[in-house]
């Protein structure tokens, strides 16, 4: 994973790399409340399976503060991360049963997770809503009108579906 920090004109200020000897990828980055950065992606170098969701927290200069992996024996991918109102993080991607929503505390420790089952569906973006719940967008081949359709999921604060 390669993180590059630029100034407002696009001139590089610094860059950092993270990862091991296998395939590791970063898909989403956000600046955090403490001026550091949170990155989510996929790692085959660390974790439990063929690939796991990988969450990396850095300081303001890109130095790694901690990292966490989430997943099982097969292929799990993290595609979007957002810092939540309580200082923790919400992650979406593809987990053991389809679209996956993971909520962590500020240190990246899992508080809860929810899977939204279906054949070939994945979450690509997550945002916390004003009511404390979450909205996820991605795709599904299990619901809708055609082969692949956009999927919008609205959850409550604990990740339970309110509407989809």
Give short descriptive properties of this protein.
164 residues; four-stranded antiparallel beta sheet; globular
Topology (SSEs and partners):
Layout: E1 2-6, E2 12-17, E3 24-31, E4 37-43, E5 52-58, E6 64-70, E7 77-83, E8 89-95, E9 98-104, E10 110-117, E11 122-128, E12 134-140, E13 149-155, E14 161-163
What does this structure look like?
This protein is an all-beta fold. It is 0% helix and 57% strand. It has a 4-stranded antiparallel sheet, with no helix packed on it. Strands 7-8-9-10 form a 4-stranded antiparallel sheet, with no helix packed on it. Strand 1 (2-6) and strand 2 (12-17) form a beta hairpin. The protein is globular.
Q: If you average the pLDDT, what whole number results? A: 93
Q: How many helical stretches?
A: 0
Largest β-sheet summary: 4 strands, antiparallel
Structural class: mainly beta
Q: Tell me, briefly, the overall form.
A: globular
Give the CA-CA distance, first to last residue.
33 Å
Total strand count, please?
14
Strand content: over 45%
Order of helices and strands: EEEEEEEEEEEEEE
Unreliable stretches covering 5 or more consecutive residues: none
Q: Name the helicity range.
A: under 10%
Oligomer: single chain
Rg result? 16 Å
| Side-by-side strand order of the widest sheet | 3-4-5-6
């Amino acid at each position: 994973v390669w993180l590059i920090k630029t100034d407002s004109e696009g001139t590089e200020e610094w860059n950092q790399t993270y990862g091991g000897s296998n395939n590791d990828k970063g898909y989403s980055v956000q600046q955090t409340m403490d001026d550091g950065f949170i990155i989510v992606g996929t790692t085959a170098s660390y974790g439990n399976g063929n690939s796991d969701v990988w969450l990396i927290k850095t300081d303001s200069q890109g130095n790694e503060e901690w990292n966490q992996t989430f997943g099982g024996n097969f292929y799990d991918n993290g595609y979007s991360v957002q810092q939540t109102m309580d200082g923790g993080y919400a992650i979406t991607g593809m987990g053991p049963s389809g679209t996956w929503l993971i909520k962590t505390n500020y240190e990246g420790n899992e508080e809860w997770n929810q899977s939204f089952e279906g054949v070939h569906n994945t979450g690509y973006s997550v945002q916390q809503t004003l009511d404390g719940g979450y909205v996820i967008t991605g795709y599904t081949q299990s619901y809708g009108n055609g082969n692949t359709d956009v999927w919008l999921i609205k959850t409550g604060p604990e990740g339970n579906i309110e509407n989809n």
